[in-house]
What does this fold into?
Amino acid sequence: MDAGRGEFGRGEFGRGGLRWLACGEDVVPAGEGWLVPRERERLSRMRFTKRRTEYLLRRCAGKRAVAASLGLPTDEASLARIAMLNAPGGAPYVEIDGQRADFDISLTDRAGQAVALVGPSGSMAAGTLGIDLEIAEPRSAGFVADFLTPPEQRWVADQRAAHGADGWDAAANLIWSAKEAALKVLRVGLRADTRSVVVTVHPVARADGWGELLIDGGAQAFPGWWRRDGAFLLTLATRTLTPPPAPMPGSADLGVAIPTHSWMANPVHRP
Ligand SMILES: CC(C)(COP(=O)(O)OP(=O)(O)OC[C@H]1O[C@@H](n2cnc3c(N)ncnc32)[C@H](O)[C@@H]1OP(=O)(O)O)[C@@H](O)C(=O)NCCC(=O)NCCS
It folds into this structure.
């Protein structure tokens, strides 16, 4: 079956806009039959349960997102046709039946949940999109002072003045998350100084849960979106102004998901 480049290449994702899918650890298949050999090889080099669990969870979200976009089933054999691979700098790309798919993907996970964002074609040097998931966890004054810029610090302080400790934590994590999303678009991740990009958040979300944000990277600015679902904060950044992503069929509801840290029960992997 040729469900790869021909049917679902640049045109399909370009026309259809962005789409997102969340999934939890509960749907990650047991065993490795749903992975391609290169994914298994990378997994085999991971000793710590946290890294393994997160790697598998992100693969699961990415493969399910691609399957949902292509109308493929999500059994293990079908997921094994879809590979979530990484360029040398770490940025993910997709192969379907061993062929490079012509659309961009961004992956993230936090506390037992992962999200995949799929959109128009990017390149290894210049992505089109980035996504980042965080939880509204406590962040210290030192964290805010060290990693955020002065205008971002002022906004976080304003949120505490208006909404108390949760306002501070949500704002600090939201800014942090949007920085990571933009640095994923740039394909650099946290190799870059987090203060090299400045985030402005429109604090009121729309009826569909998405609120606007803008990340100023000096030479270029990245429009983006944020949302809060229960304990989880999700941000995304794009190269060009794009409507918020549509949820894909089969996506988990982050609003009812409880943050988990399953790896703690068994921190070191013993095959
Ligand atoms: C990108 C980065 C900020 C994300 O870290 P994080 O918030 O802890 O983790 P998230 O779950 O949100 O995102 C992880 C995913 O980001 C993506 N990613 C990693 N590096 C990326 C990059 N340079 N550009 C775009 N996306 C990247 C990957 O898909 C990764 O998941 P995968 O390895 O399973 O495919 C971090 O991985 C980073 O700074 N990477 C670059 C530096 C580095 O250490 N690279 C090592 C690999 S060569």
